[in-house]
Amino acid sequence: MSLRISRQHWQALLNELEDARRQRHLLTYRALIERLQLPSPAMQTLTAALEHLAALDARAERPLRSSLVISQGASRLPRTGFFECVERLGRFSGPPDGTAAASWHAAEVVRVFEFSYPTEQ
């Protein structure tokens, strides 16, 4: 999936994730789309940006900031595509909707909360 996001939206995304990290809370996809005011197709744009960020973090051997973005549903987990992405990156393997995914995600979120990311991207 090619990344089609403006520099301003990319920087705003990084800022939102950094604020969430500092406040130790999670964001829903919908809340992020609204805050960033992403143009349509917003979900595809956000998903591509989060996958790109996951790849950058993985390459730098950092915890994945994109794990801070979750679905609004009862699971409180990221969408299935997130787990497919982290599996491609070699960070997780297993079904995206099982207890292994939930416990891996919970641990990754803690790692993100405790990590200090460089400010320049």
From TrEMBL:
Name of the protein: Uncharacterized protein
UniProt organism field: Metapseudomonas resinovorans (Pseudomonas resinovorans)
